[in-house]
Request: fold
Amino acid sequence: MITGYDTVLSQPAVEIQLNENPYQRTGLGFEPYPATLVTAGLSLVTIVTPDAESHFSRGILDALRQALIGRANT
Reply:
């Protein structure tokens, strides 16, 4: 059992770390990386940007997060 599972799912989005490749690809190297789990609808979308901390990247990720949350709530 995951402690706090209900609390996590009550949030529209949760910051997580992916420790395993969610796409089950083999033969490619994998390093854990931070991700956002949009709990409303449980979406998994991968976006690769040149600089994760840039204004552009943050804007794209924030817009996608809001779109997925909005879509799941309709």
